[in-house]
Amino acid sequence: MHEAGNLKIPVELFRVHRDEIRREIEARGYNERIGSYTRTFDSDEVDASLLTLPLYGYVEGTNPRMRSTCARIHERLGRDGLLYRYETGTDDGLPPGEGAFGICSFWAVECQARGGDVEGATRAFERLLSYANDVGLFAEEIDPETGSALGNFPQAFTHIGLINAALTLAERRQEGVPLIRKPPPPTGIAKEDSA
Question: Model pTM greater than 0.90?
Answer without folding.
Answer: no
